[in-house]
Amino acid sequence: MSETNPAAATGMSADAAPHRYTAAMAAEIEARWQDFWDADGTYAAPNPEGDLAGDPAVVARPKKFIMDMFPYPSGAGLHVGHPLGYIATDVFARFQRMTGHNVLHTLGFDAFGLPAEQHAVQTGEHPRVTTEAAINNMKSQLRRLGLGHDKRRSFATIDPDYYKWTQWIFLQIFNSWYDDEAAKARPIAELVAQFESGERAVPGGGSWDVLSATERADVLSGFRLAYASDSPVNWCPGLGTVLANEEVTADGRSERGNFPVFKAKLRQWNMRITAYADRLLDDLDALDWPEAIKLQQRNWIGRSEGARVDFPIDGEHITVFTTRPDTLFGASYMVLAPEHPLVDKFVPAAWPEGTHDVWTGGYATPGEAVAAYRAQAASKSDVERQAEAKDKTGVFIGAYATNPVNGEQVPVFIADYVLMGYGTGAIMAVPAGDQRDFEFARAFELPIVCIVEPTDGRGTDTATWESAFGSYDAKIINSSNDDISLDGLPVAEAKARITEWLARKGIGEGTVNFRLRDWLFSRQRYWGEPFPIVYDEDGVAHSLPESMLPLELPEVEDYSPRTFAPDDADTSPETPLSRNEDWVNVTLDLGDGRGPRAYRRETNTMPNWAGSCWYELRYLDPHNSEQLVDPEIERYWMGPREGRPHGGVDLYVGGAEHAVLHLLYARFWSKVLYDLGHVSSAEPFHKLFNQGMIQAYVYRDSRGFPVPAAEIEERDGGFYFEGEPVKRELGKMGKSLKNSVTPEAICAEYGADTLRLYEMAMGPLDVSRPWDTRAVVGQYRLLQRLWRNIVDEATGEVTVVDTEADEPTLRALHKAIDGVRQDLEGLRFNTAIAKITELNNHLTKAGGALPRTVAEGLVLLVAPLAPHIAEELWRKLGHTDSVVHQDLPVADPAYVVDESVTCVVQIKGKVKARLEVSPAISDEELEKVALADENVVKALDGAGIRKVIVRAPKLVNIVPA
């Protein structure tokens, strides 16, 4: 029997069932209703005012702002795994509309990015052409699914009238500084005023009015939230661009292209996200996010309390951060990160007298040793450099620092296990208390001083130790000088005492450190937002006035940055924009009173994360050319509410892979805009939900290569391709694995509503699940039965009757209503479908024509999940308005509560009787009923009763004497 044969389930011939729900009928219905929704503006969400204003009565409803994570429009198009989250948010949005909410649900496109640019490099075709074609294809695919987006609000990040405001936000950040006393961002002009008035001292001393323009710019750069600096970066010669830490894999290669990544020092734009570390950490508590995502952000921010300590060296000092200042007396050497800026300053021309041979690495001079070791370290990822199991390597730089608590001279090394990305890029090494320091000290024959009393019986002679010993429960020993003694103190008290002593001596202070680093914000690419920055003849950066925005990308002859041999670390970026001299070198009047002057444009572009840092705001007010967003509109959709003190989107659905990239960056931008008074929401997304992944079987031949999944033959418990056995494994769905299934293919065979139901029914939304095309037919049959319960397949006439439903049907209906409402509210779409299926099966088995109230209730329950068939049936039931804005039925409690429930009676843990009792029965009454039951009496056989445990109304457990 064919699964899609129109006569399959009824025994009727195809001619006798011309009005049966088939894939062809589904296609016609779905296309017609999609056209209607577009023409009618069914999903248009009104704003409280402005060009999107609508019915005031609608705006007066409670609002619900529902978002998907920005999709990137791939040229390969969608496979059935991609729409999982989009369908889920669509179902939830429809449910919210039907429960009285004004719903904003739309979708734009995160369209800047490397794939389109790489295609442009290979073909010479402008990346906008391929990107817009991919967007149009994706729009077509998504429309086929019947997603209820407000299309008036859609945009792409590559639209100049969108990235005008991305550039504008960058300028707000550039022209701001973080006031630690006020704990917020303020305009940079207010800082300048403080310098001018003398209210704030100029760093380094001196008077503001005597500083040159270049000197003032340098001072302000140390405060600006967006600043350019020469700093260690991840340089990828194979891509010709610099990468953020988050774009480098654990094995030190680029996330895109898998090229080697090296440490290099280049001048780049950065965002001072570290200024917001405390707030980014603290405000997580008020967000309704998965705990796993919160934990990832907390770990990435990495807050730790300790002390800053200065180690004198050659008239200057090296500053370290330590969480254990109580162990200072055990610091027997220091280690700097190889790229630490102070290294070159302290490297002498020759090795000091008495330098151990093992410290020199076999090199004739400290300079040679340092240069060679730096080259070696630059080829390793941060993860490789910190691997616990690897041998400890390093080299003495030829200088000694002074331990400030005991005056001892300690040698200074560089070693790759210390990173510039944590603390100050320098550590005081306490080998007795840290295993990495212990291993390094043993390798380089350095002293190991016991400074905490071992509690494991090893004794204090470190020469006999096989590992370090560190404990917060031990007492401090060997830690005193003429001015302070920590001996005998517990760790917490010792930390407090030494920190106070350091501060009193002016050689340190208690402080908080963060793992979070400032956000590298430059890319050496063409296909990105141009920086609205120009440089004068002195190299001072100036912001373009708002009237010059957007600064659009110019045409270039070659879209590729200059790339190099992947392993050639001794290279530096050359950007595509730098080759367009007419665009780079300009004469402009910036409106600063200096008249027209010659400037040079910034030739880096912003990273692809820039456009997705604020797109939720553009959805609110997409056609506003005068403001980022109208304040009243932003406050209506995203402002703080009870239970959500920081405001934000009501539901944000997307992948967990963006935990410390997009989500952290967007939170940072929101907080800056909030501080500056541009928005009322300090957080972009109040509730976050991570959907699972739709996986698919991958079939590999004897060589391990994927073969087309659609051509696999299954027989005798095995799998074959062209007669040869293949292995099956579960993995991602994708073109390269030859296991993609397109939405169009499923829609053509079954219809979009079937695809929607199947993806929602596969399992809990947050769990990954395997795709099985053969199982799709189950949801197709559900829709066929639904149709058949309301429409005569032979005539096409509606078969409902205007009579009251019997009590069993009313109970089935209202239990379904109650359960479906709860499930849809909780994003439990699979169980909602199960309840609808159960109701539909009940109606099918009951036979006869459905009462109109039951039919309409069933259609309304189905509407959020399968909107096309619901619209068609709603219209056939005589309604002239769309089902989209109908009220979802509310359950009658009288029909939700069972008339009776089954109570299990156990004796010695074995079931001896089942009783039908009232749900409201008391414990006392249930005990009497159970003890009087003839089966219970027979089972007891006159034995006494020691205890009766009653859990009304479902359990009685009898314990005989």
Task: Please provide a written account of the structure.
With 961 residues, the chain is α+β, with helices and mostly antiparallel strands. Among the domains are: 187-222, no CATH class; 303-514, Alpha-Beta Complex (Isoleucyl-tRNA Synthetase, domain 2), CATH 3.90.740; 898-960, Roll (Ubiquitin-like (UB roll)), CATH 3.10.20. The protein is built from 30 helices and 31 strands. The strands form eight sheets. Strands 22, 23, 24, 25, 26 and 27 form a six-stranded mixed β-sheet that branches. The protein has a four-stranded parallel β-sheet with strand order 2-1-20-21, sandwiched between helices. A four-stranded antiparallel β-sheet has the order 6-5-7-15. A hairpin with a 5-residue loop joins strand 16 and strand 17 (541-543). Helix 22 packs across helix 23 (777-790). Residues 1-11 have low confidence and may be disordered.
Short summary:
The protein is α+β, with helices and mostly antiparallel strands and 961 residues long.
